[in-house]
Amino acid sequence: MTTPVKTSVPIRAWWYSDIWVFPKLITVITTLDGEGRINAAPYSHIMQYDVMAANPRMIAGFRQDSHTFKNIVETGEFVVNCPPASMLDDMMETARFYPSGVNELDHTKFTTIPSTKVKPPTIAECPQIAECTVEEIVRLDKSSGIVIAKVEALLFDEGLAEMSRFDRIKAMDLPIGLGDESRADYFHAVDYTVTTHALGEAPNSVRGSAIELSMPWDDDAIQALMTIPPGVRKMVTDMTEAVAAEAGSPTVTLAIMNKLQEDAGMTPDMMDRFRKKE
Ligand SMILES: Cc1cc2nc3c(=O)[nH]c(=O)nc-3n(C[C@H](O)[C@H](O)[C@H](O)COP(=O)(O)O)c2cc1C
Which CATH number fits domain 203-272: 3.40.50.300, 1.10.1020.10, 3.40.50.10490, 1.10.8.550? Predict the structure, then answer.
């Protein structure tokens, strides 16, 4: 294969919209304004945040003059609805610049049902939903409003949660956002081929082989460490040793490990999720 020649392009405002291809989640966010009126609009600048802590959150970026951002600032609540590919036209309808107070969903085939923990409604046709409350708002100067939100509830259409990831991906049929051209034409991937790739073991992370310890560990603690999936074992080793050192303990004990895992939300049930399903 010949090495491709790289061309440098100008880095401009909205560079990701300009040229960069950034596959993203497509969502329709529902909010209520101060008078309790529903607003809905698509948002893709949304991502999981601080995923390893006991209180997982989401981070989202909004135009500060958007109805959605103003409503979130006013009410502290929003719902992230992930529409299926079959409803992309309806999703695009909610992107129109309707005046404030207009419920964009009235112009679509979307219907609403009550949410479980927050007041803005859930879109019934969306298979994957997150109900959120605001934890922190950062107003970037002359730019986006960044919302860090607590995930109050995650809801899925019946049957989806029990499926393997492969089957769930297919059943949900979520479109992938591929950006826009001139803020006029929006590109999406639908009916895509899903491939899976096994994560290989690094030579030093195979169960039973030596792991680098920087202080003594009790046998119990070592045994517990070996039950941690290889992919996160090094991280847990480092975190546990840091906690032991901070506590002035010369040895890593099972009690220290348990405490750390509990604080970080790494319950046995949670750790089990990282073990390979046969
Ligand atoms: C697929 C898609 C994704 C979008 N993602 C964002 C986003 O992440 N942030 C943003 O500020 N606007 C985004 N927009 C634009 C808003 O949806 C649009 O400005 C909308 O009119 C805002 O409505 P609102 O004022 O009711 O909140 C997106 C639009 C589309 C079609």
Answer: 1.10.8.550
Q: Relative to the CA of 46, which ligand 1 atom is closest?
A: 8
Tell me if the domain spanning 15-189 has CATH number 2.40.30.170: no
Partnered with residue 118 across adjacent β-strands are none
61: number of Cβ within 10 Å: 18
Q: What is the pTM of this model?
A: 0.82
Q: Where in the chain is CATH 2.30.110.10?
A: 15-189
pLDDT digits (tens, 9 = 90+) for 7-34: 999 998 888 888 899 999 999 999 999 9
User: CA–CA separation, 137 vs 64, rounded Å?
Assistant: 11
Which residue in this structure is represented by tokens 């129109």? 96
Rounded Cα distance, 48 and 87, in Å = 24
Nearest CA to ligand 1 atom 14: 43
Question: d(Cα 15, Cα 17) in Å, to the nearest integer?
Answer: 5
pLDDT, tens digit, 9 for 90 and up, residues 83-141: 999 999 999 999 999 999 999 999 999 999 999 999 999 999 999 999 999 999 999 99
CATH 1.10.8.550 in the chain is located at: 203-272
| Atom of ligand 1 lying closest to residue 67 CA | 25
> Which residue has a Cα nearest atom 6 of ligand 1?
43
**Which residues have C-beta atoms less than 6 Å from ligand 1?**
26, 39, 41-45, 61-63, 66-68, 92, 95, 97, 177, 186
